[in-house]
TrEMBL record:
Residues 126-423 form the NADH:quinone oxidoreductase/Mrp antiporter transmembrane domain. It is found in: Cell membrane; Endomembrane system; Membrane. Pfam families: Proton_antipo_M. It is a multi-pass membrane protein. Belongs to the complex I subunit 2 family. The gene is nuoN. This is NADH-quinone oxidoreductase subunit N. Its EC number is 7.1.1.-. It catalyses: a quinone + NADH + 5 H(+)(in) = a quinol + NAD(+) + 4 H(+)(out).
Amino acid sequence: MDAITTLPVMSPAAGEIFLAASALALLMFGVFKGGKAQEATSWLAVAVMLIAGGLVVSYGGDTTPAFFGMFQGGSFAQFTKILILAGSMLAIIMSRSTFRRDSFERFEFPVLIVLSTLGMMMMVSANDMIALYVGLETQSLALYVVASIRRDTLRSTEAGLKYFVLGALSSCMLLYGSSMVYGFAGTTEFDKLATVFTGLAGTEPSVGLIIGLVFVICGLAFKVSAVPFHMWTPDVYEGAPTPVTALFAVAPKVAALALFLRVLLEPFGALVGEWQQIISLIAVLSMAIGAVGAIVQTNIKRLMAYSSIGHMGYALVGLAAANEAGVAGILVYLAIYLFMNVGTFACILAMRRQGRAVEGIHDLAGLSKSHPGMAAMILIFMFSMAGIPPLAGFFGKWFVFMAAVDAGLIALAVLGVLASVIGAFYYLRIVKIMYFDEAEEPLDNSVPGDLKIIMTVMAAVTLLFFIVPAPLVSSAKAAASALFAG
């Protein structure tokens, strides 16, 4: 009877429970099937994520705390989990044709993505510093392996090693900060931490608490590739297989930024005066380094790494605003960021010459003549990332900058606009290379059907978002209000 009565309490975690069980089942399936099990495992993993998405939609909005208060559902978690599942699912679909053409068969790959997605979803719903860390490490340990999945190549192995070493360092910083916060507050639960810190209103927080908060922010900043904890991003993006880079650029960033929002606005919401300046500085540095660092890049994956750093800086502007409009702006920005990046990486995965993948920016020369459709879609993605209206990327930046203005952070918004103008240079340079430079040797004409579909759909969403923005914007506002209500 007791077991039956506890089942509804677990319902907010239905998607995570299903993913955990499915990951074990997929692993067993791959082991027993052997040989070339990747194709079947990939499609099964996609089906698993679709079902998990259905469970999140059905049960994820339940705000009843689960697992002794360590797991919290709600509209905010529901919104971000849908984005995470979409990013992971699209990364698996895009990896199929690439690995098949490279004769690389590893059924573990989709299984590891399912496990990392489980960790990301746990992070978003964590209601305790310990649960936060467990989710973070579940995600990270799987991603360390995925980064070095091509064990026969030096670049992939090096990328995995760098990611592991620096990721372990960031985890240590997060744990150290959490221990200092626990030493001051006597609890690791978000709700109780919020109560303790609210009671400090009008008093000066202790130095130990501030140091702990700074270490927690440093650990989380690493996960979103924010400056000055961005040093791993260009090397890992370049060294990891391109389907893995596509995953890194989307789902983990959404999860880590959602976690950033929950940690700073829920347990540490009463200490906004202490962390707002730190986040503003990190945002400015990320926007600046992302804009300037990409200018000198010749490898398109490294350029996308610096682009990612810059975009996380723009999103952190919304966090620095520390208001409901800022959170809604970040959620809209993350959804648009997913569309733009998935589409761009689908185009990068299609770049081949004589059957071999190419990654140089100048390999795009003459693309408008040999692949006019793909060139047009890359143009849409680049203009959108630069924030040129009326493309979707413009609205993402508009929402976060307006939130900063409403919060009185006018200088931060102005710096964001200036960084966006500087960053437009390297996006426009890609367009110039595609349309005005002559190709020494054109890219292969054959583009897999799944990549064509993905890049076309993402380009259409990015281009036509301004016609029907209401569904996404209203959903983001509802999620943001739920976060502040909680």
